[in-house]
Amino acid sequence: MKGSVIRGAVELPNVRRSAHTTEQLLAKAFDALLLETGVAPAEIDGLGVASFTLRPDRAIDVAWKLGLTLRWCMDDSNGGASGLNLLQHALAAIATGQARQIVLLAGDAFTAESFHELSTTYNGTTRDLLRPMGIASPNSLFALATQHHMARHGLARRDYGELVLAQRRRAALNPNAIYRGALSMDDYLTAPPVADPLVIYDCVPVAAGANAVLLSAADRVPHGEASVRVRAFGSAYNTDHQRGDGLSTGLRDVATGLYRDAGVQPRDIDGACLYDDYPVMTLVQLEDLGLVGDGGLARLLRERVPADEVAINTSGGQLSAGQAGCAGGLHGLVEAVRQLSGRCPGRAWPRARLGIVAGYGMVQYRWGMCANAAILEACA
Amino acid sequence: MTPTALQCRACGMRLFPARYRCCGCGGAVLDPIALASGTVMAVTHVHRVPAGVPYRHLLEVRAPGEVTVMAVSKHEPRVGDTVTLVQQEDQAIVALACPAPSDEE
């Protein structure tokens, strides 16, 4: 998409518990972004914020506290889809001249009380139908989806474990990841169960953290600065209306157009950052986006993933890096932007010209309602 | 009580949980229809259970009309079992492991 580029992307180290409030974490991510990009606050005229726990404040309150005078401002709380949702609107804002330099912030710092509040009143269906059953949480819902996925593809628990282990190996190279210690297949197979067949390593760990991204009109970018262009974007909501088996997302509906608009093929993609609340959903997104490759999921998981031949969730993903609420929705974009702009020393993709990022989330009754994806390109 | 779905008067699609319009045809006239029983499609044994919750199994139950209902059970049914669906006062839907003699149809 001509006219705008992503100039910077940062993420604070995720932690299990933070002494800071959500707003303080967002402010810290903002500071880190300015430090990295060298952009002054006065140059920023747009702000988008994604958070579950920012209330009673909203994006405009964050802008005021950061001293920003804006022409464009929006909130988004669509969980795992919020980060790319903000990106979609920010691209349109710059393309139509509504803003010239936009910062996207995402983050959450849960307390025990705020996490309980979120998880039991996530939406009306959760509050009215799932919560009263006591055990109907995302973990148990995606356990059911994993069972269906295992049956459809003839996969065993250790196949999902290969993906978990591969992401942990990547996390060991990411200083911002919460869990960086080595994990063996035996560790995985004997881990405490959560909801059959899921064990603790299959379930995204709740974290506190924040991240930030800067988009600018292309003519604002100094010559020679490493930046990233969005070549194509697609989103789809409620494509199955919670019917069926949940083993495809809205990405299946947008994939063809996404690659067409980008002028590339799945085989051209150098790295994929997909929303990994559970391993099964990473695999579903890989399929939806045509990224599984020859031999199907079995070959991918039994040969290419164990050999680290594919660049999938190279930050460690949320499964190892942690899920800081809505920051999880921006996590993949931050990783892809940093990879494509040469900011991941020691863990760079073998080739970093094109990347794909996907968001997924907002569990309604059985699984997520939202999916979105962007194909990114390193600017020469 | 028996859980209730909605059936679109225009196209016949059944919807659960309740909505304002049919996602199949956009119809706005939706009639309540009881979900008395269904077939267990998947079961997960939940190991981390909050204090005071008596259930250990979350079920995916397919009711007539391609409606899927999430239900809980104290006992572990098998996939393929027919279960009776009961909605408690707190709205939780419980699957009872006894075959229903007939459903709402």
Structure write-up:
Chain A is α/β, with parallel strands linked by helices. Helix content of chain A is 37%, strand content 19%. Chain A has helices at 22-37, 59-65, 82-95, 112-120, 124-130, 138-153, 157-171, 185-189, 251-262, 279-288, 296-304, 317-321, 327-340; strands spanning 4-11, 46-50, 72-76, 101-108, 193-195, 198-199, 209-217, 228-237, 271-273, 354-363, 368-378. In chain A, strand 10 and strand 11 form a beta hairpin. The two termini of chain A are 15 Å apart. The relative contact order of chain A is 0.20. The model of chain A has no long low-confidence stretch (mean pLDDT 96). Helices cover 0% and strands 43% of the residues of chain B. Chain B has strands spanning 4-8, 14-15, 30-34, 37-45, 57-63, 67-73, 82-87, 93-96. Classes of the chains: A alpha/beta (380), B mainly beta (105).
Short description:
The complex is a heterodimer of chains A (380) and B (105). By secondary structure, chain A is of the alpha/beta class.
Q: Low-confidence parts of chain B lasting 5 or more residues at pLDDT below 50?
A: none
Q: Helical stretch count of chain A? A: 13
The mean pLDDT of chain B is: 93
Q: Give the largest interface pair and sizes.
A: A-B, 28 and 28 residues
Q: What's the total count of β strands of chain A?
A: 11
How many beta strands in the DSSP annotation of chain B? 8
Distance between the termini of chain B: 17 Å
Q: Strand sequence of the main sheet of chain B, in spatial order?
A: 6-5-4-7-8
Structural class of chain B: mainly beta
Structural class of chain A: alpha/beta
Roughly how many Å is the radius of gyration of chain B? Answer: 14 Å
Indicate the percent of residues in helices of chain B. Answer: under 10%
Approximate strand percentage of chain B: 35-45%
- For the residues shown, what is the average pLDDT of chain A? 96
Q: What series of H and E elements makes up the topology of chain B?
A: EEEEEEEE
Q: How would you sum up the global shape of chain B?
A: elongated
- For this structure, the quaternary state is heterodimer
Query: What portion of residues of chain A belong to β-strands?
Result: 15-25%
Poorly predicted parts of chain A: none
